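Blackboard transcription, Thursday session:
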Amino acid sequence: MQLSYEKSREGRGCSVMPACDVPVCKVPEGLARKQEARFPQMAEVDISRHYTQLEKRSHGVNDGFYPLGSCTMKYNPKLNDEMAALPGFTGIHPLQPVHTVQGCLEVISTLESYLDEITGMTGMTFQPAAGAHGEFTGLLLIKAYHTHRGDTKRNTIIIPDTAHGTNPASSTMAGFKVINIPSNSDGCMDLDALRAAVGEDTAGLMLTNPNTVGIFDKNILEITKIIHEAGGLNYYDGANLNSIMGVVRPGDMGFDVIHINLHKTFSTPHGGGGPGAGAVGCKKELEQFLPLYRAVKDGNGYSFSNAENSIGSVKEFYGNFGVIIRALAYVMVLGREGIPEAATNAVLNANYMRAALQDTYSIPFNDICMHEFVMSIEDLKKEKGVTALDIAKALLDYGVHPPTIYFPLIVEEAMMWEPTETESKDTLDDVVSILKEIHAKALSDPASLHDAPHGTPVRRLDEVGAARNPVLKYEFDTDK
Amino acid sequence: MGSYIPSTLEERDEMLRTIGIKSTDDLYGAVPSQMKLSHLNIPEGMAELTVSEKIRAMAARNKVFGSIFRGAGAYNHYIPSIVKEVTGKETFLTAYTPYQAEISQGVLQNIFEYQTMVCELTGMDVANASVYDGASGAAEAITMCIDRKRRKALVSSAANPMFIQTIKTYCFGSGTEIVMIPSKDGVTDLDAAASLIDDTTACIYMQQPNYFGQIEDCTAAAEKAHGAGLKFIMGINPIAAVSLKSARECGADVAVGEGQPLGMPLSFGGPYLGFMAATKDMMRRLPGRIVGETKDVDGKRAYVLTLQAREQHIRREKASSNICSNQALCAMTAAVYLTTMGTKGMDEVASLCYSKAHYAAAQISSIPGFDIVYKGEFFHEFVTKTPCDADKLLAKLEEKDILGGYPVEGGILWCVTEMNSKDQIDALVNALKEVSSCN
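(Written on the board underneath:)
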């Protein structure tokens, strides 16, 4: 398919701007740009068709099952989008006087009260724009806490080897050293390794519970206690919150700081990679460090409040407000019964799929799991040369989005499935039978899987070539 | 209560039987019982219609102004109809990051087109697929320039205060030292900047136009930076960038900016868009996703996420940045906006902003007490004095459904765009004449 730039023709375009109704003045010669910025010149009908073509070459939750482990690709309710698009929200300048933005502040403050209750925290910022941004913010709260106490030697963060790559990367950005510790044979935290790792330099622990192999760590209270006794704080990576919301709270597990991915757990759409929202909640003693511009309710309505020893800002303004509205609509629809019901059914769906596949595929931690489970294709690889990548690509020919592959790192040839609560039993049954069919094919005709996919708009790509000779923009004929 | 769960109660029982457990309580056997929540203290769930009414009532408690003369980091521009239509397409809205390239060519091609447009806008060689916003982009740009030896960044005090705040917060994390360059007559004092440079300084960050709307001498700044072995980071407004010397023409090594003016509504501050581009030399230090062109096994042209050896899922604690989710749909918004406007439309909107701002500045400053504060060239924002208390003056304008400029030190920062007709500007000027007695 052609690029918009290749469809561009001199003289085409849309008429959007009116004639100037004041005297025209020009930027002085010495300040003006010499080389004109070139954008596609297309008629509106061609733009409409261009993006429709691009849409047909994409895959969303509306297209079908999307079981990306750790990404919580649940259905995105349409009410949420409509609410975010209300002119009473989209037309509001972020620097308007506070009495003219009471509705916006009410949205943020109301959502905070619900999420504080769901997570067991007492204060929250909505400034972070994504999960990793939330991690960075939460780690800065931990850093500020120790620094403020004059406890400046605490410079390490402990992270288990099952963690998302963002955890160590965020720790480095926040100026910490990372201590990676191995998991034990049941995929959970090795308590002895943890005890050996803590010390006077321990700033904190980053953990997701349930972890990335889908297991709830039953020693969680012991784990958080070890960190607290060593003088550190516990950070909860909220990537897997969907499995436990309304059932058990990170705050009650001993966590001090948490980030929540509103674009996972609270149903806001991922937009092809963003915008998300990584709200960060914390316990009372950390509230004094929260980022600026927290929305609070007082006697006369809503206002902004700046924490006494705030770390500052991690972003302009108050966060991805449009995402915050969507999450509020979702929590209001589900309410106190719907939140735990969603979690329970996410766990039910994952266990149903696991149980239905356990006789066909190898499942290394095959016990009751939470919202996701991990299969290993190691056996098939040894016997037939079929890899997790091959199975993933074969799924594409069935119109099924593959799960997360090659993660977590502790499982060889991993495939990490997270079906979420918004998939029906019918959908799960279909996918289970497709997976069994692919397994049979792997045994009988492994070569056919190496070539998959066959029916997609393009087939397997030369990724090495793309990285070796990077072509990162359209090259104009005239520039060649 | 509401629910988005499709399974019927019978199906759920059937699923429990397949798993081999009796009730859903058995799913949570690993959770210590003393920790389990007995009651979640939030309101009961509500029907869609009820929630719609309640949130509409919240929206109604905001005031949407009839005319807006305020910028200061968020800009009121016209959004062509097709922009909302395209970016509202369900597949674009609900897709994840395009990990499976074979079924994500649409999203990937769009990012490739967007990267091309950002390179055109800035004149730079390579652009990434977006970062969170302009402020965090500026902070990431500084991280790109820091190394073991050079751990200090000079930041213009004429930059947007929220950007400065964000840069400082990021640098609290990384341990990077920030030194503020003073401003003089509303622009960055480049002589002072030169005197602040030492052999541990990595880069200079400046904005074009700056917070006060003034056009900076970025060419001179880049020369000073390069002369001392520093990198020059230029923050740009994407509408002004169409008219003013490009980042490349000024000699920038990294160009970053807030992309909100490219088709994103004001929306109380977000979601917005951080765009980021650099010279080829800096390519492997860029944070975030980057899409590249390649071929499939049949030789067909295709697009894929590339240069991933920089990223957190591969490099973990050694990654160039922790960024994972970005602002992809906002990047698409900018791409559709720029495609709809085209080269000609972008020239038109930039020219309208410039002309109207200069008309408004002349009219406002002709009122006694509203002198222009800074005498340098400006683009579409400018600061005037105010003859009386800014808040009182702005409150009077509010009664006339006008969101006036933003109070800053020394006066009021006004912004004028294509959205402000001559009638609106004249009405503002008349209102100012009327209310400037204040008392």
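Lecturer's comment: Chain B touches chain A through 203 residues (CB under 8 Å).
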